[in-house]
Automatic annotation (TrEMBL):
It is an enzyme of class 2 (transferase). It comes from Ixodes ricinus. It holds the Pfam family SQS_PSY. Its EC number is 2.5.1.32. This is 15-cis-phytoene synthase. Keywords: Carotenoid biosynthesis. GO terms for biological process: carotenoid biosynthetic process.
Amino acid sequence: RSKSTRRGGTSAHGAYCMELVRKHDHENYLCSLLLPDDGRRTAFAVRALNVELAQIQDVVSRPDIGLMRLQFWTDALERIYKGSAPEQPVAQELAAVIRSRKLSKHWLSRLIESRKESDKAHTSLEEAEEYAERSVSPVLYLTLQSMGVQDLNCDHVASHVGKLQGLTNLIRGVPVNASRGRVYVPLQLLAKHKVSQESLARGKADTREVIYELACAAHQHLEKRYVLTCRSSPDEAGCLAETVD
């Protein structure tokens, strides 16, 4: 039976992507289920790509191997847009939604390129927000694009939600990353609150003030999201269902 055979309206590659997101990004899995049909498939395909990219750092032993894996996805994207996708489930599903929804290569490339910076500490809060804009917001831009939404207000919502999610991921990743000797909290915030990278990496730092400041910044994006969503039409608001809290 062909891997592209549909069962219950979902292709085998689509089902693979959904399961990958369900296992590794469960919150966004649940949110994506709320989307209309034409956006849901794209959301799962793109989020599955994001899972593949996010896992690279955790499974490789050397940075150069990580870059090689990222290069695979860069090359895969080139092949997809030339009509010869690799025989890999996520790549095959991406090829299908790119063909059917005419998705922008720019945003997919940005997702891949952003992961080359994922092991670097941010200097400032603004830099952390910019990274979130590059690594999270493109998923939302592509989902909106797949539903035919061309609205500046919706794009602004997606931008703020991307920054909100990025900062939230940064906050809750502090303990795990510290246990692995990784520090991604903006260095200016650490200096401002007199927290050393060494103490943070050892798990002995009092990070309450640092975390509070990050949380306040995330909450500002949440408030802006609420204001902007209220300006959207009912149909556009439905397309933004993935961004519910």
